[in-house]
Design a protein that fits this description.
By secondary structure, the protein is an all-alpha fold. The longest helix is centred in the first third of the chain and has 28 residues. The protein is flat. The chain starts with 7 loop residues before the first helix and ends in a 29-residue tail after the last helix. It holds the Pfam family Coa3_cc. Its main location: mitochondrion. Component of 250-400 kDa complexes called cytochrome oxidase assembly intermediates or COA complexes. It is found in: Mitochondrion membrane.
Amino acid sequence: MNRKYVDSRQAAKTWRPKSGSMSPGLKRARAPFLVRNIITGIILGTFAVGVYTYSIRAVRQDDFGDIDDEAKAQREAERLAQLEKMRRESATVLTVGEEKDVMERAARAVAKEINSARLGAPVDEISSLRASQSQSSPVLTEINTQRSTRGVLVGLLDKLLPGVLDPSRKTLVWGAPDVDNVGTASSKN
């Protein structure tokens, strides 16, 4: 039986008859490259050792003594600024009762503003006076901006890629329900 090709296992055995050893044929095939490979290895090794030695010597020459002084001065300046801030804030400290009273009054005022925004009409005399003095209060402006744009991405996408967002709700998923008022599973809204 005449074979045109040699079996790859038999060919491998001719180059490496035992694990880790080279056959005489493999040694002869590698002989022309031996000197070039040795020179290349020495050059690469010398380069690596040179970079390492240069780096170590360059770092050793640096004097880091002035960094400690700068860091101490910066920490002292920050500490003094924090003490000054605490001193200023301690002059306007409210008691717990005073703070509760202020927060309750603020919450009532915000609730009245929101109710008047929802109803479209002023709730009491103070609200009507405010409505006559200024057409838009900060609370109403905030409510309207929250309704019109939600987040930074909506504004960017609407400007850069018009038509990507749902025109009625400004959401990526067209026809998606409002996530700000989820409700319950049985709600029909």
